[in-house]
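Continuing the batch. This is chain 6 of the set; chains 1 through 5 are on the previous pages. Same settings as before, nothing changed between runs. Recording input and output for traceability.
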Amino acid sequence: MRNDRRLRRLVVDERTTYLWSVRHQHGEGDMCREVLNLTLDGVRTPIVFRKGAGRAISDGHSYVGCVATGPGKLLNLREPGVVRGLVDEATARGLLPGTVELDGWELFDAVLSRAAAATPAAPPDSPPGP
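Output for chain 6:
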């Protein structure tokens, strides 16, 4: 079984390598949240997804590390490509590197759009899926 608590490496370029991990946490009055911790040169930046109206996070009954805003609008924070998308979007907005907690929902739609644009569409003559 994989150890989900270990730090993983994300190499962005020749000089930039993030360490990252994902945790499900309770706090602030037992409010559930998924936290992606990014560490660059010893500086940790948490990207936090809090459960709320129209915003779902894994709660121990669904896929751990997943955050969603509706059917078909889901990001799995344990996937390196998703983490890279969050790093790229936060960097483009001037938020990384940084030392403050980031609201992951502010990055969610942009990362989801990038992922959808990078996913090839099914050929028009293909049969319907399952």
